[in-house]
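pasting input
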Amino acid sequence: MRDSVGTVRTVLLLGGRSEIGLAIVERLVREGAREVVLAARGGVAEPPGALTALGAKVHSLEFDATAPDTHTATVDAAVALVGDLDVVVDAFGVLGTQSDYEADPAAAARAAAVNYTGHVSAGLAVAARLREQGHGALVVLSSVAGVRVRRFNFVYGSAKAGLDGFAQGLADSLHGSGARVLVVRPGYVPTRMSAHVDPAPFPATPGRVAEAVSAGLRSGATTVWAPRVLAPVFAGMRLMPRPIWRRLGR
Amino acid sequence: MASQPERPVLLTGWGRTAPTAARVVRPRTAAQVAHALADAGPRGVLARGLGRSYGDAAQAAGGTVLDCTGLTGPIRLDADRGEVTVPAGASFDRLIAHLLERGYFVPVTPGTRQVTVGGAIAADVHGKNHHADSSLGAHVRSLTLAAPTGEALTLTPDGPDAELFRATLGGMGLTGVITEATLAVLPVETSYMRVDTDRTDSLDATLDLMARTDADYRYTVCWVDLLARGSAMGRGVLTRADHAGLRDLPPALRRAPLRHRAGSPLAAPPWAPPGLLNSWTVGAFNTVYRGAAPRRRRGEAQPIAGFFHPLDAVRDWNRLYGPRGLVQYQFVVPLGAEDTLVRIMEGLSRAGAPSFLTVLKRLGEGTGGHLSFPRPGWTLAVDLPADLPGLGRMLRRFDERLLAADGRLYLAKDGRADAETVHAMYPDLPAWRKVRERVDPDGVLVSDLARRLRLL
């Protein structure tokens, strides 16, 4: 339960090896969170030392984004470990390479399943629990890639567009339930996942994304951009004529 | 049965922080309370009064919250026995009006009349007379408790289940739902107070004057200015009073000595900008407020409402803290631990904590309630904006100081302490739990506070 100064006690990270996800968890632990569940395929055998050094109790859980039938059970298992879920960070995903996807349509569909439909079942399973407990926040890692889908990464971007819309709708469905959804739209963040793509303007670090999430959770925001300047930048991008948009390299 | 709406309602404490959702049911009789308890879902049931506890004491996320303000009915004054029997949902506002008209007053009143009798007992509230008269629990002659097992129990301080009586005083509603109480009353000749006011110039002078003169008055309290700089930090306005007799009143007031006017003419705006109350605005308010107080005045007749409940004059004043709400930090340290008190006040001052209601008071003997807050010592209450940068960390440091000095926090004000801290502050918690396990074996009664502090 969030306390009166905005500190939370328990955090569940779906995508337990996500660098951005872990940065968010670490930030919340620094602010006072005491119990963390890292959920990832195969579990997270060795929890990051930073979390335990900060005094958090870290649990590991099996979570398969591509097995929607198991998602409710995963949420129940997390509740069994730590009780009420104060914050759930939904951070799993794959980036991949657009040209590979175009060469292997089945691989593209599998990536889309992780990046979109996996979040549909996980998000609904989490939302059901938060509604039942009457409080809690779901942090959904969307991306600017989904704000307006670009030619150079439209498989990933379209899945993020779907996820972003899903998260907004989920947020509205939870209105008044005590639970809420925070949609996070980072720009280019250099991590292991994005190591193979060229840097883009206005980069953010995982730490900066975590800072934005923490501030958003405290203020009651529904959407945060990281860095913040991307909000006006993408407001402009949306208006860009299609012939120019199509030619954008990045 | 009272109607049971399907849609959950978002509830917060008076601080307006950390809302959680619950189904709200409004029972009108003790039987309906019993029914609601029997009907409990997996997330439990909790009684709520007028929602004046600051933190999360009166909310139960995902559960059922009983809005007990519907538990009303006649107030029965027994002048021969010097006691009054009140339904638990009656407010102090109504009770005080009823009693004053008949020449009586409540034995203890908190700083607002907008609390229910049930809520006041559950928090074992104290007032400006704590050093003389202890807290409300000391004046409860009996109470009726709807237990989760379905029984209606009548409890007295030395009856067969005195242990449950003690566990219920300050028990934060976690031992049962109080449906009715009999309180001792205080006969008064007038509805006025005879007030002595002194302005002090430093914290030392404030503490010294309070320590020396407390015993001479039934009611004492000191408003403190933490935003003043240097040696002026902790300067204050000390007010001490007794009930005014008929002869204490100026002739004009003697014609209607029990007249009681308690409206709330002003309402705070429904929306205040974030940061309205900051160290500049509150510092200016403090300077003006203190400047307006007399340096030394004796025997001034003040109406009861103005003396005890000045903030009741502004409805919804908590909204002035803006959308992020406020945190009240109230603690007590034993006599002899003045050093800790001063260090915390200095810490608040350094942080520029914009508290426009900082109240210092000496407490007397406690009631023996396991989780009851008051104990002999100094208590300080400060209101702080919940979004004050670094607030959580600062208060955790204060908690550590309190622990080292054998001090404690007031659960009715708390919304942020951690479980280990509170467990160490309330050594009777294990005994309280034993009583609770007996009356609530299935764990029906629960609150967000109880979950956060792992009280159950």
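fyi Chain B has 14 helices and 21 strands.
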